[in-house]
Amino acid sequence: STRASAILSALDIPVGAAELPGVYDGQWSGSGDVLESVCPTTGEVLARVRSATPHEVHEALGKSKEAYLHLRTVPAPKRGELLRQIREALSAKRDVLGALVSLEMGKIKTEGIGEVQEFVDICDYAVGLSRMMNGRVVASERPGHTILEVPNPIGVVGVLTAFNFPVAVYGWNFSLSVAAGNANVWKPSPSTPLCSIAVTKIIARVLEKNGLPGAVSTLITGGKDVGEAIVASRDVPLVSFTGSEAVGRVVGKAVQSRFGKSILELGGNNASIVMPDADMPLAVPAVFFGAIGTAGQRCTSTRRLYLHRAIAPKFLDTLQKLYATISVGDPLVDGTLLGPLHTHAAVGIYSDAVDRLRQSGAEILTGGRKYDHASLSQGNFVQPTISVPKTTDPADMIWSTETFAPILNVGLFDELEQAIEWNNAVPQGLSSSLWTRDVRNVGKWIGPEGSDAGIVNVNVGTSGAEIGAAFGGNKSTGWGRESGGDAWKQYVRWSACTVNFSDAAPLAQGVDFST
Ligand code: NAD
Q: ipTM, 2 decimals?
């Protein structure tokens, strides 16, 4: 379409080329399998991208290692200056890159742009970090000695990413990793190759202008095979993986088996709990956004809603009224709040989940079908669904698994303790949210008897995190942390350096080894 062409050419992606090269390590190449980028709104094939052959993966990893050997000699504040320039280059293209996210992934325009803004924000953070990645000076028990804890670059970082944040997740990793002095190899989702090519082109131009190797930001598009090759490589000491629990389980074990380090950011199954004293005009729209934003395809999407019995009928009534107003359609059109699911396969997963709910006797309050108007028939549009399952048993598959679609299951409780128990009883532990004005509830929720998730919000929905705090989940979400907080400490190797500047060489703990 002309719209797609305009977006691609504004991002320097050739329009009308039969195939695009999908590998970058200083040079563009790619002669492996063909990946198709399919627009989830129209079904149109936006481009064909050539991924890497095993030989090309090997070569690109070699180039990344060379790039690391160079980058580690560049002082950290100078790496910060590089990130500042990348931040400016991304910011200049923010809206059009956001539009590409909408076009290729399917999220609505404001969320697409927001995702690029997140990369800009984390660059800002990493610029500051580049002057603050401090080790410590530790008191030694020995006279004339001092102990330093020193962070140094770790090497090549493999960044394997999911389809639903095709720009920001690389941003979280790349920015911290470059500040720390590492080269990066990005293996994006095979269904969002254009976003990764556009981002790589923006970064590559800045690297080139600064005389730095392009392989500081290597791109290897591809599927499972390419992912496996990166995960298996001993030249990749740290693998940062974002994706499903099923794949994360395989990746985590493979990295561990060669004693590499991993950061795992896996599936979520996030609950909002609403107490009777909650501020309803705030809570209802927050649950609405949490459940429907990105068409329920955020790792932090609200999938479980626990309502206090006293307010449940009124809450559900107001929520259903909001659901009825949803404007569904082309994610690039102003005012659309619900775009398509990312793939055709996801529509099947949605339908299967709804069938399972119906068969188990759940009451479907709203939604439950694919949209059938003609204007939406080319895309993967499904109705956002609210269901009240018959069972509240958190071990039941309805409650214990992540369905990556806009389905919200509702359960009623009488006591906060019950709701917290349900919140914690699932395998996943990413995000959670409590709505209350009572400080006693807040204290319980954020304390040892409270939510066991990595994100524990109060009067804030489950999705929509800022970059300042460490982001990630516990339990089967993988315990990974990215973005702010102390997350940068994972992207370096730490050494304890004891330095003796005295004229004697005493042993620790008073050990006497004299002859
Ligand atoms: P996915 O697990 O299918 O794919 C993720 C990545 O792994 C892709 O790049 C894929 O090509 C690659 N891959 C597949 N098999 C592999 C293998 N054997 N070895 C190495 N790599 C392999 O996930 P998806 O469908 O793209 O993304 C959705 C999932 O991601 C959801 O579960 C969502 O919750 C999760 N997610 C989590 C976070 C978080 O921060 N916790 C953020 C975004 C998405």
A: 0.99
